[in-house]
Design goal:
single chain, 156 residues, 65% helix, flat
Length: 156
């Protein structure tokens, strides 16, 4: 993993692909995991490898923070775009009719609990489970009895 993702042995541009996908946090997570594995003693890495991983980790901290800030700014801009000058001037002169989106489909409404739908009405699930279990035991017992009867006939 170190050679492929950190050293980029195959010249795939791994870090650049994570940067382009705006997912340097995932890349940082991989580097952190590699350092954790070394610390726990599962991987006996060379001192040069450890130093390179720590260097990459140090480089990634501000890059991930900047990436997260950019994502947050874009998200905020999408959720509440700033009012444009033309929209403000037209709003002052003409009343704007708000368009309500048309929603189609079933409407889910909460219905008040009535006396007929109390929990004492209907079949109790535990009784159904018990009945199914007893029926299964009866079938097993019948099978044993039948097998025993068959073997007794064979002996006679």
């Amino acid at each position: 993993m170190f050679e492929t993702y950190v050293q980029d042995r195959h010249a795939l541009g791994i870090r650049e692909k994570f940067t382009a996908a705006e997912n340097l946090a995932a890349y940082q997570s991989m580097v952190d995991r590699m350092l954790t594995v070394i610390e726990k003693g599962y991987w006996q890495a060379s001192p040069e490898t450890v130093a390179r991983l720590k260097q990459v980790q140090t480089e990634l901290v501000p890059a991930v923070a900047a990436e997260n800030a950019n994502i947050a700014k874009r998200t905020e801009a999408q959720l509440c775009p700033p009012p444009s000058v033309t929209a403000m001037s037209s709003a002052a002169t003409t009343p704007v009719a708000k368009s309500t989106p048309v929603v189609r489909g079933r409407v889910l409404e909460e219905k008040p609990r009535s006396e007929t739908t109390s929990r004492h009405q209907g079949t109790n699930p535990s009784i159904i489970s018990l009945s199914a279990g007893l029926a299964a035991l009866a079938l097993i017992a019948f099978g044993w009895w039948r097998e025993g009867a068959r073997s007794r006939r064979m002996k006679s």
